[in-house]
Structures are given as C-alpha cells and as structure tokens.
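Collaborator request, handled under Task 6.
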Amino acid sequence: MAFEYGTPILKRESPVKRRCFSDAAVLCWFTSKGRAIPLLVKLQEGDEIIKLQNIKVHSLTEQFYAGIQTWEYECSAYDENKEYLFLLQYFPENKRWKIEKI
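Structure tokens returned to the collaborator:
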C-alpha cells in the first residue's frame, strides 16, 4: 500500500501586493482560445464617468493569489488629450473586472 504526503503544487502562487483596485465596466473580446482582450473601459470618479477607448495592452500576466486565478493587464489609453496608465485585473471565476490607476 502506497501513501502520499501533501498535495503536489500545480501552479505557483504570486506574492500578495497591496493595491487599491476599484470596480470597472469593461467591454472585451474573447478570442477562440479563451483570452480576453479589453476594448473599452468605463469607470466612475465621483460624479463623473470616464470612458477609455483605444486601449493598448502592454503586458498580460496570469497570477494566482490564494488559489484564485487573475489575469493582469498593464494598459494605456487616451481620453481628451490625456493619457491614462492603468492596471486591469480580470477574475475568470466570477467574471469581474477591477482597475487601478498607475
């Protein structure tokens, strides 16, 4: 009879980073391979709703925090001659988006 101690780790956990994310509404396109590509972001700052189009994704990383999968996108976009740098987080399990301005 064989015994096995513990469980094998399939995915490496990412270190937890303290960040201030807020909810965002994101229009995205899903590829045939299941990847999400953000096309439009709407976020609320006070009473104003900011709409960011023409999003350029600089990098995409797949992270695991406490076993929860997230996709992190480093992005930039222009709105009224103003450049926004931001980090988008997508949670595939519950299909939610979060944003943090950089």
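The cover message to the collaborator said: "The chain has one domain: 22-101. The chain has a mean pLDDT of 84. Please let us know whether this matches your experimental observations."
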